[in-house]
């Protein structure tokens, strides 16, 4: 797509209130954003702010398509610098969307891209309990997507305390031989990252107060149920799963 065609699309998004036209225009922008030259062009035409402004609309399908467009556009570092101002709104979209909906998944995909580096993690701190709730209640497809975000966040030591305080009574259910391999592996990476960060803190986090259902109590306190789960997973047929189990046990 040339600059003139993209400009017309962006102007159309600004000019129309018709949800069907908005949807189709956003799909076209999203497809064109698969090409890096178009990613820069859309930014230079002020397209990011136009699309970002559609995240707080009341038509779920339009919001979903806007999230998909920003997701494709967020592959570009300079675009991320502009898209980051919408992270809090994206988190609200994820929280308010129907569980397992395409809208929720679109928001999670964008958060995954925006959390690959730690630059914008601070904007997601307050939504860790929400993301963990989606992990507990979501379908396998949703669990895999939200775990991608959580694993990215857990790699950052500055996020660890916020994880440890969160209450997730059902967390242990993820560490089971019968669980989908992609979910299990990511859950183990999440646990390994958190345990590593706790150990690197030299004990200061252990002195904090945690509830019985907190992530800390389940994963880091002398937890017999978690230890039993890990012992069982040592016999898992997947070598990557076993590798992460060993990583946790040797920390």
TrEMBL record:
| Membrane topology recorded in Swiss-Prot or TrEMBL | Single-pass membrane protein
One cellular component (GO) term of this entry: mitochondrial outer membrane
Q: Which InterPro entries match?
A: ARM-like, ARM-rpt_dom, ARM-type_fold, Armcx_regulator
Provide the primary localization. Answer: mitochondrion
Q: Where is the Armadillo repeat-containing domain?
A: 2-219
Transmembrane keyword on record? yes
Give the keywords, sorted: Membrane, Mitochondrion, Mitochondrion outer membrane, Transmembrane, Transmembrane helix
Pfam families, per this entry? Arm_2
Q: By its UniProt entry, which SUPFAM superfamilies does this protein fall under? A: ARM repeat
**Gene3D superfamilies annotated for this entry?**
Leucine-rich Repeat Variant
Where does it live in the cell? Mitochondrion outer membrane
Do you know which PANTHER family this protein is assigned to? ARMADILLO REPEAT CONTAINING 10 (PTHR15712:SF23), ARMADILLO REPEAT CONTAINING PROTEIN (PTHR15712)
Question: What name is this protein filed under?
Answer: Armadillo repeat containing 10
Keyword Kinase (UniProt): no
């Amino acid at each position: 797509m040339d600059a003139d065609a993209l400009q017309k699309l962006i102007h159309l998004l600004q000019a129309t209130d018709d949800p069907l036209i908005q949807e189709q225009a956003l799909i076209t922008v999203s497809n064109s954003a698969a090409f890096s030259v178009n990613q820069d062009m859309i930014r230079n035409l002020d397209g990011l702010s136009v699309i970002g402004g559609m995240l707080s609309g009341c038509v779920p399908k339009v919001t979903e398509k806007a999230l998909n467009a920003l997701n494709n556009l967020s592959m570009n570092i300079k675009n991320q610098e502009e898209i980051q101002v919408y992270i809090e709104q994206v988190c609200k979209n994820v929280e308010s969307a129907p569980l397992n909906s395409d809208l929720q998944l679109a928001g999670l995909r964008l958060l995954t891209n925006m959390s690959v580096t730690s630059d914008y993690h601070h904007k997601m701190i307050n939504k860790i309990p929400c993301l963990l709730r989606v992990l507990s209640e979501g379908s396998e497809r949703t669990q895999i997507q939200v775990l991608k975000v959580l694993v990215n966040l857990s790699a950052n030591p500055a996020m660890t305390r916020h994880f440890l305080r969160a209450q997730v009574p059902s967390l242990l259910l993820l560490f089971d031989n019968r669980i989908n391999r992609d979910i299990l592996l990511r859950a183990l990476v999440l646990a390994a990252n958190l345990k590593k960060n706790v150990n690197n803190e030299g004990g200061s986090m252990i002195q904090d107060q945690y509830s019985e259902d907190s992530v800390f109590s389940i994963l880091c306190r002398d937890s017999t149920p978690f230890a039993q789960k890990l012992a069982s997973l040592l016999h898992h047929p997947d070598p990557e799963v076993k590798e992460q189990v060993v990583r946790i046990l040797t920390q």
